Amino acid sequence: MGKFALIAASVAALSAAGIAGAEPANVLVVQGGRALADNQRSVGYGDLQLASAADRRVLQERVGLAIADLCDPTHFSVAEPHGSMICTQQAWTDVQSRMGQLTARFASR
């Protein structure tokens, strides 16, 4: 439950600051493919050592939790029977390259 509170607080902070496309330091913004006000989740990684395989797995888990929350089937109507699956695929596609860049940058240190 604490992870979701952290995610919610980060999203609130981003919304309050009016940051739409920029990512603050030590935060990945995971975005779904729908044009909704609530289509982003923030995932902090400032506490992780991404040169470590174990911490890269933790980041992967955090992103997975954020995507699961973002693309929860209850956010979609019966008119969108595959909406959750499509949202999940789009969110992973959106964030995977940035995760790869992060891990490559930290692994080279």
In the sheet with the most strands, the strands line up as: 1-2
List unreliable stretches of 5+ residues: 1-20
Query: In total, how many domains does the architecture comprise?
Result: 1
Mean pLDDT comes to 77
Q: Kindly provide the radius of gyration, computed on alpha-carbon positions and rounded to a whole number of angstroms.
A: 14 Å
Largest sheet: 2 strands, antiparallel
Number of helices: 3
Number of strands: 2
Estimate the helix proportion, in percent. Answer: 40-55%
Strand content: 5-15%
Structural class: mainly alpha
Distance between the termini: 33 Å
The helix/strand series, from N terminus to C terminus, equals: HEEHH
What's the overall geometry?
elongated
How would you characterize this protein structure?
Helix 2 packs antiparallel against helix 3 (83-107). 54% of the residues lie in helices and 9% in strands. It is built from 3 helices and 2 strands, in the order αββαα. It is mostly helical and 109 residues long. The protein has helices at 2-17, 53-70, 83-107; strands spanning 27-31, 40-44. A two-stranded antiparallel ribbon has the order 1-2. The chain starts with a helix and ends with a helix. The longest helix is centred in the C-terminal third of the chain and has 25 residues, at 83-107. The chain has one domain.
